[in-house]
Amino acid sequence: MSEDSAEEMRGKAKAIERIAVELRAEAISEGGAVRVVAGAADSIWELDLRLNAFELSGVELGELIVETIKDANRKAGAEMAEQAGQIMGREISPESFDGTPERIEREEEQR
Q1: So what's the pLDDT on residue 111?
Q2: Domains held by the chain: number
Q3: pTM over 0.85
Q4: φ/ψ (deg, to 5) at 31
Q5: Which of 40, 68, 73, 81 is the most exposed place for a label (fewest CB within 10 A)?
Q6: Where is this region: Disordered (predicted)?
């Protein structure tokens, strides 16, 4: 790899790293009881519960929170893949940024 190519790759890696740090994706549950803002790598930046969330049972609320977190993480992964793909000049699958236990288990099973 030439020095120019290596420098170009370092620049692209730095740009992708910046996106990963700054990226935010929002998801709101049906009915608006739960709002989640997620970042890259399945990080949760905000979790808001509206007044109507407290009308749900503990189990219902827990399930709704988890579902909304997963939705925000999917959106963040899709946005990360799109932006990284633009930088790299090729399509990148959103699953590349899915760090969920389900994905990790699938990868381990494939080995």
Answers
A1: 62
A2: 1
A3: no
A4: 90, -10
A5: 81
A6: 80-111
Do residues 39 and 73 make contact, with C-beta atoms less than 8 angstroms apart?
A: no
Alpha carbon distance 47, 36 (integer Å): 5
Q: List the Cα angle 99/11/94 in 5-degree steps.
A: 25
Contact yes or no for 53/20 (Cβ under 8 A): no
Whether the pLDDT of residue 23 is over 90: the answer is yes
**Domain that includes residue 84, residue range:** 3-110
Query: d(Cα 16, Cα 35) in Å, to the nearest integer?
Result: 26
Give, as one character, the DSSP assignment of residue 2: -
Where would I find the H helices in 1-111?
A: 3-22, 58-88, 101-110
Residues 97/40, Cβ–Cβ less than 8 Å: yes
Higher pLDDT pick, 15 / 98: 15
- CA 23, CA 105: separation in Å to the nearest integer? 26
DSSP state of 56: S
Domain of 59, CATH number, reads: 3.30.1310.10
